[in-house]
Design a protein that fits this description.
Elements (H helix, E strand, L loop, with lengths): L2 E2 L2 H23 L4 E7 L3 H17 L2 E7 L5 H13 L5 E4 L9 H7 L11 H9 L7 H13 L7 E5 L6 H10 L3 E5 L6 H5 L4 E4 L17 E4 L3 E4 L5 E4 L12 E2 L6 H22 L9
Parallel strand pairs: 1-11, 2-3, 2-4, 5-6, 5-7, 7-8, 8-11
Antiparallel strand pairs: 9-10
Helix pairs in contact: 1-9, 2-9, 6-7, 6-9
The chain binds guanine (GUN).
The site of guanine has 8 residues, from β4 and α6.
Amino acid sequence: MAKIISGSAMADRLMATLARDVASFSRRNGCVPTLAAVLVGNDPASEIYVRRKISQCRKVGIGSIEHRYGADCTEAELRSLIGRLNSDSEVHGILVQMPLPPQIDSARILDAIDPVKDVDGFHPVNVGRLSTGTGGLIPCTPMGCLMLLQSELPGLKGKQAVVIGKSNIVGKPVALLLLEQECTVTVCHKYTQNLADICRHADIVVAAAGSPNLVRGHWIKPGAVIIDVGINRVQSEDGKQKIVGDVAASEIDHASAFTPVPGGVGPMTIACLLLNTFKAADGLVSHDPRLRVDA
Ligand code: GUN
């Protein structure tokens, strides 16, 4: 049987450590690390994600302020809010929940966030820092994937890693993090030919395609470690809705370990967001030069 890598358990441990660090930071500096969460429109999934992020902040003593705008919000309104949050010394992290309504250019909104407060790690400066291995804030889901992998495979050097999916939020940054760990990385996407054959050579598979049960058991090399980033809502045989990953979990007994869905990468994403908010607060309060763009 393949081992289940519990993201819920690892996230709980991370949050327990974070709660202690946040308490000590707040005592020492007389200020509470604070996240501003911006939600535009009424996408039900985004509502759930933002609510969850805010409730987890509370658990570790991180402050949160929610800013809500209707689906008719303009780009100018949103840019003006971000300008205010950038210069508010009581706000350390800014998160703009994606997707944004079509009248708003998401890239321009991400550009407007001060990179030192960009706890999603989506600003081009942080993307550049990640690609050159020079610090900055790292995107939350990729950071969670790496921590889960490292818990199972302490030495990643020289491993063959296959990343399925090339999104800016997961696929590309995961590939960069694995490259930084000296894995040999292949990034696959929907136009990749012979995906099954490529996977069969992998010691590590990170599935982030957003396609339910895409990765089949016979694609997996015996002993491989599998990180399943997919969160897909499907109808089960009894007609109920259920959440499944991108990997056919019932077919991978011969893997050495895998992350379940739910309870794998999801909880780690939020724990890493809290970690980034703490890091941003720590960097801002201590004026950490590694975080400053203009240093
Ligand atoms: N939408 C889907 N994933 C994310 C994420 O990690 N951060 C933000 N801000 N929006 C998202």
